[in-house]
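User: Hi! Is it possible to get a structure for several chains at once, not just one? Here's what I have:
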Amino acid sequence: MESRSVFCAAICAFALVSLWPARADSETPRLADGHPDLNGMWNGNAASPFIKSDDPLASNLRSRDGTLLNFERDGALLRRADPNKPVYKPEFWEKVRELDQNGNQADPSYGCMPAGVPRMGPPLQIIQTPKEMVFLYISPAAQGWGDQYRVIPTDGRAHTPLEDLDGTWKGESIGRWEGDTLIVDTIGFNDTSWLDIGGYFHSENMHVIERLHRDGDLLTWQATVEDPDVLVKPWTMNARTLKLNADPKATLPESLPCVERDLSHLVTKEHH
Amino acid sequence: MTRRWTLGAAVVAGLCLFAANSPAQPAHAWSDGHPDLNGVWNGAAAARVLSSGDKQGLILSARDGTLVNFERDNALLRRMDPNKPVYKPEFWDRVQKLDQDGNNEDPSYGCMPQGLPRMGPPIKIVQTPAELIFLYAGFQDIYRVIPIDGRAHTPLADLDGTWKGESLGHWEGDTMVVDTIGFNDTSWLDIGGYFHSENMHVIERLHREGDTLTWQATVEDPDVLLQPWVMNKRMLKLNPNPKAVLEETLPCSERDLSHLVTKEHH
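Assistant: Yes, the chains can be modeled jointly so their relative placement is included. Here is the combined structure:
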């Protein structure tokens, strides 16, 4: 899959940024309706790499010797070492293990399918209007083929009843403000997408709550996954802190389309 | 390709919308005085080629007004359209060969993006003072972010050729003009082997009258075309439901290509 290395790069970059302690550089701007202004491109530079390196690319990628060497393998190992994992009900432990062991075949994002919510992570660009939020993603983060968007109404509407929704990768997202925090509440998923590598499947009854909070030029995103069908308790994912791109004319690069060519040539079950 | 059916539907819907009437209402003004292009532009088609009692047949033009063979009939209708790009003579053989091998040559048959201008008009527009967001659905959930802040194009030599290119918008009176350069030479303009060069220049014009939005694209590509190609207009109707949402597009997964037994391309 052409985009796999870029994908891992993005994951590593996000993971890195999330290690960066949040701090407010400036006052949080607000829109006319009084809510924080989340508009902007949230791909500002990460502050400090996990491992110091003179290689400018390696500052976003974590491999053990601080270069780009084997960053995909090391990135996967670091993610596996993360203690924050979803806790499945005992009757699903074997299923998770089996999916994990066959991840190259079983992980839908390895066949150019979308990552879905919440695996697609925080948006790269946000457009905020009084009635809705538009979240834009590029494929290194969103996987799948090409760019992806989400349109999230914030007009106070209620969710469509779950039984009336077709399960999708992105689900039905509704936003609301709790104080200065934007809450994005999503239901209506398919049961195809994964939460992450590791065989972390979910049911169609999954409920995802994302919280976005702006503090100066930093935006913190954190998702909680509720899925009582398969999880023992809600899974609160690691928070990710993004920095506003200071260039008002910055543009998003176009995603390369995903083309699966490698899968049949893989000789190990190692999954990244 | 599991998505081909949807593609055919979208194209035919576009053709039908072309026949929509423009109501003589004044354009809705936005806060900065320019027309307000915000909205979901997938309102019902106004007229169709063939009448039908079949609800789905209303937007799909198969010859008997039903869904039977609508993909084949749609491709035939598109091929009959007299408005075609005119290639330089040295490319006639190439266009013919690409067309004849369309199932293998057409990149959108291998789950690649359609690119501009084949992706057509947006289905939803979000307008801010500094930029327009165009959202697309049906073939692929794709977006375009189009600055309208007066910036100039990046020099073509500095752009990586992409499917969507670099788009900039400006107002000419009440018409939004979106100017795009910086393409790859992989995408096609349509079925028919209509390839283009990396020097292609696309100009889209969007004009709102009442609840009707007219979109028209012009393709300039002097490397391969004898003259600019002005594509057919498409008229879109505003969705009157302020809570309308876009359906998520199914991911493209190519499974049919190796099983096709003819070269017919739709």
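The longest strand of chain A covers residues 207-215. Residues 27-45+89-265 of chain A form one domain.

User: Great, thank you!
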